[in-house]
Amino acid sequence: MKVIRSKSFTASRSWGAVDIANIGGTTVRLHWADQPYEWHVNDGDEAFAVLDGIVDMHVRIDGIEQIHTLCIGDIFYADAGCEHVAHPQGAARILVVEREGSA
Q1: Residue 7 φ then ψ, to 5°
Q2: CATH tag, 13-99
Q3: What is the pLDDT along the chain (103 residues), one digit of tens a residue?
Q4: N or C: which terminus of the chain carries fewer CB neighbours within 10 A?
Q5: Closest Cα to residue 77, out of 35, 32, 42?
Q6: CA separation (Å) from 6 to 10, 83, 93, 100?
């Protein structure tokens, strides 16, 4: 059993995380970020829920970049092969659910 107070979670570096669970090869992690991540393509599906803060999610579809602003409670789902990068506006806390080892 765990109780995690996401509002008070911080990390020593941007995109630092605490592992919450591994459920049958799917990881659930809480990330703290105050800097953009990096453009990447996951080899599996990913769900990304903003628990605190605001995050601009950049995606490239057919070479065209789109930006979706995510607020508290918003969820971004990226299927395998979706090129994306998260840009927090200040500090943000994000719950990420993805296949273990997904890159």
Answers
A1: -60, -30
A2: 2.60.120.10
A3: 989 999 999 999 999 999 999 999 999 999 999 999 999 998 899 999 999 999 999 999 999 999 999 999 999 999 999 999 999 999 999 999 999 877 6
A4: N
A5: 42
A6: 9, 27, 7, 21
